[in-house]
Amino acid sequence: ADVAALQAQGRKVLISIGGANATVHLDSDAERDQFVSSMLGILDTYGFDGIDIDLEGASVAISGGTI
Is 51 among the domain residues? Predict the structure, then answer.
């Protein structure tokens, strides 16, 4: 309801993940696929307009290809 109310005002509503102390480890294709699937599910469920992914330096380890 809050997301829809903001969108009705013409605002874009994003979900943000990451930041200075966040870590994400995607060590396989399966983990990468699960991450993408869960992000898409959250967008779908709550109606967000997009995702702000802020992973810096050593906070992300991707061995399973690209996102």
Answer: yes
- Kindly name the residue from 56, 61, 63, 65 that is annotated as catalytic: 56
Domain range for 56? 2-62
Q: Which of 39, 37, 31 is nearest to 14 (CA)?
A: 39
Q: For this structure, is 56 an active site residue?
A: yes
**Is residue 67 domain-resident?**
no
Full-model pTM: 0.71
Rounded Cα–Cα distance for residues 28 and 37 (Å) = 14
Domain count of the chain?
A: 1
Q: Which residue has the tokens 């992300």?
A: 60
Tens digits of per-residue pLDDT, 38-50?
999 999 999 999 9
d(CA 64, CA 43): 22
Residue 34 lies inside a defined structural domain of this protein: yes
